Amino acid sequence: MDYTMSKVPLEKAEERQILIFDLLDEEFALDISCVREVLRFQDIYLLPQAPDFIEGVINLRGHIIAVIDLRKRFNIKIIEDRTKACIMICKIKKFIVGLIVDKVKEVIVLSQENIQPTPAVISTQIDDCYISGIARIEERVIVILNLEEILTNEEITGLAGIKK
Question: Structural domain of residue 155, as residue ranges?
Answer without folding.
Answer: 16-163
